[in-house]
Write a structure and sequence with these properties.
It is built from two helices and eight strands; from the N terminus they run βββββββαβα. The protein is an alpha+beta fold and 173 residues long. The protein has a five-stranded mixed beta barrel.
């Protein structure tokens, strides 16, 4: 996807609790309006570190006017938890720290109707931060599924061992 348009850089959404290379940080999302369209999108511009002081805002990359961006349409990141009311923090004028990306909540928060998916900025595209996206065919999900499967198998075998030995101990009494 290649689009020309403008970022509304008066609004920055910081997805909290993102770790890269053992450092804490945020994924930065900014509303983007393609030229000639009424639709707005959230663009995932990448990761930025928090440093040692979470009260200190990151330095934001600025663009001027109409820009050309390239990226990939993606589903909203499946991070964070949601129990009851969604909690966000306003860190400055138009700057919000959130625990999960909920398009309906963010649309209401910033007063802009946003499309129900995000644009993940390509690593080579300007106007972003650190971007190391997992490739869809990288096998990362398969490896995690295998690890989870083996972990469950180990727990199952441990439970069977404990139950069998408890029954033997009760029979010997």
């Amino acid at each position: 996807l290649i689009a020309e348009g403008r970022f509304d850089e008066n609004i920055q959404i910081l997805l909290d609790n993102q770790v890269m290379n053992d450092r804490a940080g945020y994924l930065v999302f900014t509303p983007f309006k393609p030229a000639g369209q009424e639709k707005w999108f959230l663009v995932n511009r990448g990761w930025v570190g928090t440093g040692n002081d979470r009260n200190k805002l990151p330095v934001f990359v600025k663009s001027e006017g109409i820009v050309s961006v390239s990226g990939t349409a993606a589903n909203v990141p499946a991070t964070g938890i949601h129990i009851g009311k969604i909690i966000d923090e306003q860190l400055g004028l138009g700057i919000y720290r959130v625990q999960l990306i909920d398009i309906a909540h963010i649309s209401k928060l910033i007063g802009i109707m946003i499309m129900p998916y995000i644009i993940r900025l390509d690593p080579g595209s300007k106007y972003g931060y650190v971007r190391k996206w997992a490739k869809p065919d990288s096998g990362e999900d398969v490896n995690l599924a295998y690890a989870f499967q083996w972990f469950l198998l180990a727990i199952t075998l441990l439970l069977i061992y404990i139950i069998v030995n408890l029954e033997k101990a009760q029979d010997q009494k």
